[in-house]
Amino acid sequence: MAMSAVARDTVFALRRQIAKIEGTLPERLEAPASGAPADTARSDITVVRRGLVVASPDAFLHTGIERLDTALGGGLPKATLSEIHGLETRDAGAVAGFALSLTSLILKEKQGLPILWIGTAEIFREAGFPYARGLQILFGIEPEQLLFSEAPKLLDALWIAEEAARMTAFAAVILEIRGNPQRLDLTATRRLHARAQSAGRPVLLLRQAGAAEPTSAPVRLIVSAAPAASRETLAGPLAGSIGRPAFTVDIGKSRTALPGQFTLEWNPDEHAFEERRRGEERRSDEERRPQEERAANPVAVVPVPVRGADPAPASGAVLAFPAVGSPAAGDQPSRQQRPAHRSPRRAG
Amino acid sequence: MISHRDSNAQRIAALDERAEALKLKRGMGIADARAMHPSIDVVEADPEADRRLLEGLADWCDRYTPLVAIDGEDGLFLDVTGCTHLFGGERAMQDEILTRFFQQGFDVRAGLASTPGAAWAAARFHGDRIVAGGEEEALLAPLPLSALRIAPETRASLESVGLRTAGAVMAAPRAPLARRFGATLLLRLDQALGRLDEAVSPRLPVAPLSVERHLAEPIMLTDDIERLVSRLAVALKVDLERRGEGARALALLLFRVDGAVSRIAVGTSRPMREPQLIRRLFHERLAALEQNIDAGFGFDLVRLSVLSVAAFDMLQGDLAGEVADDDADIALFADRIRARLGEAAVLKPVVVESHLPERAVTTVPFAEAPQRRMPPKQSDRTAPPMTIFPPERPVRLFRSPEPIEVPATEIPEGPPMNFRWRRALYRVARAEGPERIAAEWWRQLPGEDEAPTRDYYRIEDSEGRRYWLYRQGLYSSAAQAAPRWFMHGVFA
Q: What range does the domain containing B478 cover?
């Protein structure tokens, strides 16, 4: 037992070392209670690299989902290279959608700055070219803000990305690559990461149909599509309809090394994420949502009945035969119906 | 000896001195020539290659004057007005040109005169002669009629009436000549004698500004070329500043020692005059062309020309002397990528008013795109006014819709139950639609069949991915072709 505690201490000490080298605050790591006091004192020091206060709260992009932010250690780091993986090429829509959601969040702070989307000719042919109309409707990114760059070869795409990553004129740079090319190795990602760090702008590396490889990006997220919830109408969810975009996000790599899977839903009206709790079925989600929303918006959707509040629902269970109408369903039952309505309950 | 095919017979098109010594002539049949001298060497004529060679020579002559014109199949006009003093006078210049051509292995005749007509005659009938102003008449008078650059028919009819030299034509009364032989004869005569101006049309537009440097020691390395470019750009900047303009297109001409000329052009999306920026653009271009530029024994003349200019708006910098202009940064970035990877490397989407999804957004190269308005305003968008519920559009659209196999639909006009796309089977969990998008009748040619309508469906498959499918055509009558299904886009 004592051995394992010592080993744990060593592990945490090592992690703290790594965290310092990488430029993040070590206190976010759940340090053991028995940690040396000298170490905790040192953990308050903000590590400054390349003239940038990396660990300042402003350095993170808050996704708006508390659990995800905590798991990532405060949010997605802004001035870095972040990898977003899709396991298959057919996930390209979800991966692009998630990256664009993040871009849309970035654009909330940097209004009007353009976005550069670099891709190889291969990925644009396989997965489709980004469609400016769709981006405008869903993510509020104006067509004038968009710049695309289609490179015939991977080397050219990497060159463009490196040149773009060092510029501050872009709100974000998206680089899209398919598969696991040999050229996109630790060195290439390191160069991109270093440029993003010094420019203070995010570079999103979308890797379609790529397996996890050693990378210099501090964060790797694995995104796939999640079944969408139904559309909301005044009468409740509309059965069989396809609502807002939803993504399943796995944390593949992060500094805190906390695992997690999240189902996020993008709200195209508010331009914000909403989380769908794990394990909840779509149906229960549909049932829960209207009540929640009613609680959030106290204004009655339907006029309040003239004769006061609805009567309380009947207690007990109907055993003998079905009820003619539940009291909550509509008006008060008529005088003739009432005895018939009440009698089975008494019998029960 | 070079042969060419003329009216179904192989004839001699050109021949060298040794062949001439054998009493062979131009226009003689090859069969006759072979009968006279069976050992002659005959090569088929290649007018294309001749043309390319002449253009290469014209490029090389750019080093003497920007006004170089190609004359017929075997001549070049160089307008050296105002250039001769750079080479030490007319005589020295002509000697230098002839020497250099001789060293490259060409047998060249040259003539220099105040009028193109006289220079033409001097070059073809004297070989190496400089005609001073006013001496044109004396030069032309003893020459045969072909020195006047007139059509062979005119020449033959003039000769038939006894006018055999240019001098005889000049002495003859003008009015009957004009009446009988047309205005062209007198026009050529007047042009040759300088009574009328003749414009030589240069093969390349004259650059508004250009600077060049002759090098005693030829350079070969790309780094040296770049360094020289920035030196030349510094000289260029002064001129551009004086004119209040910036360069929109630049060309770098590299004259190789052995006569080959490389021409490297870059375009800019905004007027530019900073030497450092110009150097960076050429850096990218040279990096892209590294394999294609053969320095050989080096370049001995480097010229930087501004091909087109535009008004340059000065920007107020802050006290630190820096102008923070994001748009300028992006324009430079796009120019550099364009210089290295070509025109279509940076694309900008432009919204077009159209129903068809693939036409509604087009991408144009960055340099041709309309300037971005800062900040983008909600009111004056080119997009149609947004409705409260805009139609759902995918985040990715395939460049060309991909055909899919749909085995069955629940109801004839309904969404598919499953489909096969790129050899994989997809099971449809939910579907929304259809959204019918008809073809645009105003783009249809008269008499053409109406293009089939498209019914778009949003589909979610069993794994939660969302797609945009459409059915082209209707399940109506048996006469029409069966409708086809296509995959057009992917939703987030």
A: 396-490
